[in-house]
Amino acid sequence: LKKASIENTGNFRTGGCTGFAVGQAVRTSVRPLFVEPSRFLLNIGASTAAISLILLFQGFEVGLYQQLRSLPEQLPTPLVALQAGVTRLGFQRSVLPSLIRTEIEAVPGVRAAHPVAGVPLIYDRDGKRTPVYVIGYDTAGAPRRLTAGRQIEREREIVVDSALASKYGLAVGSEVEFVGAKFRIVGLSTGTASMLNPYVFARYVDLVDLYLSGDFGDAATTDASLLSFLLIETVPGTDVGVLRDAIKRTVPTVSVLTREELADNNVAMGKRMFAPILSLLVAISYVIGTLVVGLTTYVSVVNRSRDLAVMKAIGSQTGQLVRGVVADTGFVCAISLVLGIASAIAIARAIEWLAPGYSVVPWSLRALVRTSIAVGLIAGIGALAPLRQISSLEPAMAFRN
Amino acid sequence: MLRWAVRSLLDERASLIASIAGVAAAFLLAFVIQALFAGEAEKIVAYPTRTDADVWVMQHGVSNMHMATSLVESQQASAITRVEGVAGVTSILYVNTFVEAGGQDWFSYVIGLPPDAARGGPWLMSRGKPRPGPGEVVLSDVLAHRAGIDLGAIVRIDKREFIVVGLAREAYSMANSLTFVSYSDLAELLSSPKGASYFLVKAAVATDPALLARRIATQFPDLNALTRTELVDNDRELALQMGVEIVQMMNWIASAVAALVIAFTIYSSVVRRTAELGMVKAIGASKSLVYSAVLLQTAIVAMAGYAAAAFVSLGLTPALGALVPEVSLLFPWWNITGFTASVAVVAIVSAIVPARRIAQLDPATAFRA
Prior knowledge:
A: alpha+beta, disordered N terminus, B: alpha+beta, two-stranded antiparallel ribbon, 54% helix
């Protein structure tokens, strides 16, 4: 019985253990892997699943806000003029009078004001419908990164977000119909989708033609102009802040924001809309995930309680038992964390592949640190809770059981 | 033998409680997230669902509300009233825009209601009056709470000021909230004094809404007419893509993790009893008795975990409502039953795999162990 108990315990020395060196602790902690592989793997499996859950839920939140930031940050100019009161890109309809471009270009320090039309539409094909945001650009405003094809060069050509293309099985060369007109896809862009809608890029003049012919089925029919915003290119060496104030003074009917401000405003709006439910989901994942880790650790130590009691009875100090259990738990936690991070990243990649347009970022430093601390803490509690009972056990009781 | 199985389970009380707690935690995770998703999926279509209209009539080419703009001539309402099977028509104006409240912008469906609107207004009030007059607004009570405002506060829609006269319940979702103003105010804001966005049609008794929708669409080729069910389905399809799908994905992940954790817990619970069960087999118990004992122990752990999770879930609904008024839990019992059935299969497999090894154990090996 004594031999069997010692074998089962695996990671505790019976005598002569005056100090528990770190190397020895790690060495002895690895031993259960070989002594009881199935139980060890089960503990690792349950903890890995729980850690992946926590990281993935945070990854959804982080990815969502990153997407909202992505498009404003890709704009080619440092300043953007929008309808007065409009402070976000893609969330709000902005309508500028066409003549305002000349007024803004007349402000010293402005090199050019590039017109852009932004029209929210619903793309309908094969019974599937998706809200999209069409960007009509002229001299600036093309998507920054293409995954296939080229930028628009001729009339009735468009570039679509690769997630949208993937959803509908579209590719470079495909013909698509938008607002009653046929367009040919010449490029696929990336980083141009948010949780609200993927972006489609077209020539400004093509959209103006459709607008003037009254082909916009619903959106923009009531707008006085198709011009939504102006990308303001500055003269080299111009102070952006000073220029913005000058434009505001000269043309008070527009809002002028920097790319960063637009990105911040988009994220703030996304948080206002989605934070209550996403934060709640992340909190639930923390509570349940850490509970699973804690319970798994607790059961693992309870299962070894007889062995631990025998160890105590034959002379091991409580401190030695505690150090052993902590080292053992730390080892399981470390492996689970590594596997949890790896599986969360793999699942995130699978989600992005299966559901293009969604971004899941489970590896943000903040999430990793928070998760590691929470898991370590709860696992520690789960491991040490049964030890109190074991340490108070009479030696005779241990052998009787 | 079965009595022994129960007693053996109860003997290791700490392990039993931990196993039940593990299973309960997993079930709870799945239940609550399914309920959150179901609640949100219903709330985003609350307006067309709860508005008492059998047929929705809108601009041709438009087939939903979410992110859509529909503009038709308001005089057509009287012509629709004369269509056979129509009991009543209410015109509403609608735009999705931002409402500035408490110094922040809130994305909202803004509905313009005629003074005598028979339908289309808030269906449940928290406080105040349900029909806004000129210069007045009825907001979602949750939005007002989040914005830190109350009745009598001033909000802005497109720079125009409105005084809050009512707070509506069930008018908030993560994708939008509902805001009600007078028809004349919204017509002015939209610069369309003779326009309407949707006609809400009430069908006469014994009139099939689908037939009535087809009749209206045929008689008015510049309009689109849909039954409430069609409009709700269209709206849900689009609204889900605007953020709520993320919750759905989280729901799938949570369900998968929950099933995995239950499988691990059950497997580990049986593996823990390998020596005992092997001994029982060695002293003469048949294979079927070993399987029965294992399945009984599994059923006890799984059912106790399920019951605990169901109990806590039900208690969570009012608690979450008070703590996080933005979300509401709706337990989709059909989905939960489906999930539970799948998990039952997973649990049985997780128990049978180690049990099979025990059942095939050589008695001599059991004693040696």
